[in-house]
Design a protein that fits this description.
With 246 residues, the protein is an alpha/beta fold. It is built from 9 helices and 10 strands. Helix 3 runs parallel beside helix 5 and helix 4 packs across helix 5. The structure holds adenosine-5'-diphosphate (ADP) and magnesium ion.
Length: 246
């Protein structure tokens, strides 16, 4: 077992954003994580990678207890994540952005640059290495975010809406990239709203709602689960009610 998260909770003041989430991930899996906005998916990722200390629960990764470990320790052990809002250095070049990740395992400048170039080629940004990060469009940014993490050579990659904002043709290409990353031997947990992505990539899906896991199973099983349908319906109804009457 690569990752074992048990009873992970996170409170912000009196608000329980995450309420006892369990997740085990075996090496080689590609797991989907879905749920309405505000369900706690990003908070769960934050706890898993050490960006936020959980208020409860236990997380082991590659046989080590990492519940209280720093994000740097997680990265060294081989856990990498993309951010829902890309953490890009806008004024740096695409290459330099990826070198920031590559320095983790290649402290020398030359080796880090070589690694970054190789990863950028791999994600399809080989022609844009010298461009400023700010000049990239959405698909380029999403790829850059993935490249930055791949450069850290993760065993487990957590993708947080890494495909959001792409048009249908770009989504198809991004699915191909995720599939290629997975085929290269990297275990993946992916948060994604686009069901086509979940359906075509994953065998196992975990569904979050209000900080809890309410279902898990194959993509087909969970989309037919009444509790899941209710969670999504309730959400869209609530959003509908929030709109001003016209
Ligand atoms: N740093 C924070 N401080 C206070 N509340 C937060 C913080 N981060 C997230 N939340 C709240 O926790 C809930 C879960 O958020 P999040 O994990 O981002 O959901 P998701 O990624 O599933 O959309 C939301 O209600 C959000 O407003
Ligand atoms: Mg989120």
């Amino acid at each position: 077992m690569l990752l074992d998260a048990h009873g992970v909770s996170k409170s912000f003041g009196a608000f329980r954003a995450l309420d006892g989430a369990d997740l085990t991930v075996d090496e080689g899996e590609l797991i989907g994580l879905i749920g309405p906005n505000g369900a706690g998916k990003s908070t769960f990722f934050n706890c898993l990678v050490g960006d936020l200390p959980p208020t409860g629960g236990r997380i082991t990764f590659a046989g080590r207890d990492v519940t209280r470990a720093t994000a740097a320790t997680h990265a060294r052990l081989g856990m990498g994540r993309t951010f829902q809002v890309p953490a890009t250095f806008e004024d740096m070049s695409v290459l330099e952005n990826v070198m920031v990740g590559a320095f983790l395992r290649h402290p020398g400048r030359h080796a880090a640059r070589d690694k970054a170039r190789q990863v950028l080629e791999y994600v399809g940004l080989g022609a844009q290495v010298e461009a400023r990060a700010r000049s990239l469009g959405t698909p380029g940014r999403k790829r850059l975010e993935i490249a930055r993490v791949l450069a850290t050579e993760p065993k487990l990659l957590l993708l947080d809406e890494a495909l959001a904002g792409l048009n249908p043709a770009e989504v198809v290409q991004a699915i191909e990239l995720v599939r290629r990353i997975h085929a290269s031997g990297i275990t993946i947990v992916i948060v994604e709203h686009i069901m086509e992505v979940i359906m075509s990539l994953t065998q196992r899906v975990i569904v979050f709602n209000q900080g809890r896991i309410i279902a898990s199973g194959t993509p087909r099983e969970v989309t037919e689960d009444p509790a899941v349908i209710t969670a999504y319906l309730g959400h869209s109804l609530k959003r509908g009610e929030a709109r001003p009457a016209s």
